[in-house]
Amino acid sequence: MKKTSLLILLIFTLLFSLQCNSSNPNNSERPDFALVIHGGAGTILKKNMTDEQEKAYRDILEKALRTGEKILVDGGSSLDAVVEVITLMEDSPLFNAGKGAVFTHEGKNELDASLMNGSDLNVGAVAGVTRIKNPIQLTRRVMENSPHVLFARDGAEAFAATQGIDLVDPAYFHTEKRWKSLQKVLQKEAAEKSAYIKTSSDEQKFGTVGCLALDKNGDLAAGTSTGGMTNKRFGRVGDSPIIGAGTYANNQTCAVSATGHGEYFIRNMVAYDISAMMEYKNLSVEQAAAKAIAKVGAMKATGGVIALDKNGNIAMPFNTEGMYRGYIVAGENPVVKIYKDN
Amino acid sequence: MKKTSLLILLIFTLLFSLQCNSSNPNNSERPDFALVIHGGAGTILKKNMTDEQEKAYRDILEKALRTGEKILVDGGSSLDAVVEVITLMEDSPLFNAGKGAVFTHEGKNELDASLMNGSDLNVGAVAGVTRIKNPIQLTRRVMENSPHVLFARDGAEAFAATQGIDLVDPAYFHTEKRWKSLQKVLQKEAAEKSAYIKTSSDEQKFGTVGCLALDKNGDLAAGTSTGGMTNKRFGRVGDSPIIGAGTYANNQTCAVSATGHGEYFIRNMVAYDISAMMEYKNLSVEQAAAKAIAKVGAMKATGGVIALDKNGNIAMPFNTEGMYRGYIVAGENPVVKIYKDN
Questions:
Q1: Is B162 an annotated catalytic residue?
Q2: pLDDT number for residue B189
Q3: What's the gap in Å between the CA of B60 and the closest CA on chain A?
């Protein structure tokens, strides 16, 4: 009798312990390296895209993945890979970051970016810069060459000047496509006699780029870069330069970069929340990322995240029609997706 | 036999469930209202303070508590109380916020503030404003009258102008004490031939003010306001205007306001982390706040937080010599403390 009841007790004890500390159901054998990217989420539908347009996006996403792969294969750090990949995406007019940044209400381009190092939780970020060709490169200088983590607007540019970073003519960021987007929104605003942005279409909000990397040392890094929202005013800062909202990396948990309606990503602390749910609730990266996007969705806001855990597991949830995204894991082919399934 | 073993099983089951969901050991009977304030943490020692100085601080802290109490007794909202109390503290030259803000490297005063509503997680924040007498009042306009959450520098002031908020002459923020602090740091910098802020004394970093309130409806709110760091440059943004770092409020968990070496409070997402540990690990507000300050301390950074949970429990941990702080709970006398114990 005693043996039987003890056995039953033991089984129950074990069952409850497991429930308390449900272990990560994912892969725990870390690949040599992994890299994940996004180029923004939104109403991205195949029917609205020409074959040429789709090919252009798939090509640049694959090129970005291959660029990061080369750095990581050669033993480069996750920070090196993230900065290099985002630089490439900032230089493309296809994304709302760097060259392809959207216009503010006043017809300017104000760029935000942030970078986080998972090994020491160090951070660099800039908000509202208008003359920095590659904001992501400036975030690395903020992280490594200043005791601070976030510089804003003209202040960030004054810091850039001390770092020998070339300031470009703001005209560099002028692209016809983005200029027309602004004109369309301004006309709509005038027609509605609205003194303020009341409606904001997907086209206004999205296109942010982000990159996460896990290097051979097991170090994670995350970066995000954006032009923000078409027709933004008043030095509006979104989630991209805000650590914990748009970007987060911690070697103990995961790296995250977000894209979407930034105000809601700030209010929900999306990037850090994913890490917190992994650390404190023992959720997998897929479970945590899905829950974080569900919280944003519960506020009727849209967007997506990419997340990469310390073991190379990847999650890319979004609640929009599509998200430009892709990943590459050591020894495997790159994967690029745009729509819900492919 | 069966009955005995079933009983034992039942007991074990109960024990393990309790372990999984250990309930908050604190008070769960909510007082009618509660309000908590801080006026900065740092090397605040009795031996360095005259009786008059100490009395001035104790008087203004008690006046702030009584101001908040009156609003909450009358059924005012936690947001009303937080904005009114912080306005009073901003108007005092004793704190590094509003009137008493420290000077930047260029001899300007650049103010940061944020406000969060625990009932809907709405947020308003401004960074680097130079002509706003009460930045906390501007954060409420950002929260309520714009679809955005954070405005920076000249942009934030342009928004203020649309809200009928009076812009003051920047000279309003000139106080001799803060001006001398800047001169001292600049002389030290010159002597060290340092092109950058290498050392940063407590006096440079601290004095931020914050307020948390729980109103009769059970709604929590949190606000923080600061002049930042003496000799700051490049549009440096600290943790005070960053939701999740310096300020957080959520009716489901707690309200938090932080003070200290802002860069580390950003890297550790201190304010949201306290809420996350309460929500995900079921820690009490005291346990969560203590852990958050321990994390900052592990990075050799200093500061403190005030935290108020949805049931009126209060925590005020800091790892410096002192922190100007106080609280008032419905039906009780206000409590004001400066040093470790009193």
A1: no
A2: 83
A3: 32
